[in-house]
Amino acid sequence: MEIDSLQELLVEEMRDLYSAENQLTKALPKMAKKASNPQLKKAFETHLKETENHAKRLQQIFDKLGKKPTGKKCAAMEGLIEEGKEMMGEDMEEDTMDAALISVAQKVEHYEIASYGTVRTWAQLIGDDQTAKLLQQTLDEEGKTDKLLTELAESSINVEAAQA
User: Fold this and answer.
1) pLDDT tens digits, residue range 96-107?
2) DSSP annotation string for the chain
3) From residue 134, how far is each of 37, 64, 158 by CA, in Å?
């Protein structure tokens, strides 16, 4: 496929994000189940609902543009999720596993923050303010989740893992 405009590149990158969000909706319940810290478990469960809304928000944008969201697989998310599966398969103390789960989750969040920031900027540049606004909402939620994970790690989970 030839991409000859920023608009087409935006659509392709949003397809990548749509794939990423759908892959993540399958991985988050497994991460929540593996977490022993109640706050971390709740954070994963809450982010699952947000992730489902992120996919719906992307679908809304595709509907507005008259495009299909499917047709692309996000290799980056696939790799991050695979790394998480490997980590969850390791034999670790519960507190250490929770620290590892935060590590994996923050890698995912940072990927999404970078990706949503990029497509939001492209939407602004091409004058699609409605798309930019929707993408900014998701970007804000991804940033909030990242901050929550940092707070959990620094206030208790990493400390408990270090003492285990």
Assistant:
1) 999 999 999 999
2) ----SHHHHHHHHHHHHHHHHHHHHHHHHHHHHH--SHHHHHHHHHHHHHHHHHHHHHHHHHHHHT--S-S---HHHHHHHHHHHHHHTS---HHHHHHHHHHHHHHHHHHHHHHHHHHHHHHHHTT-HHHHHHHHHHHHHHHHHHHHHHHHIIIIIHHHHHH-
3) 32, 12, 34
CATH superfamily of 6-156: Ferritin, core subunit, four-helix bundle (1.20.1260.10)
CA dihedral 78, 80, 85, 88 (to 10 degrees): -160
Whole-model pTM: value is 0.94
Dihedral angle sign, alpha carbons of residues 143, 28, 81, 67? negative
Q: For residue range 112-139, what is the model confidence (pLDDT) as tens digits? A: 999 999 999 999 999 999 999 999 999 9
In the predicted model, is pLDDT for residue 164 greater than 80?
Answer: no
- What residue type is 105 in one-letter code? A
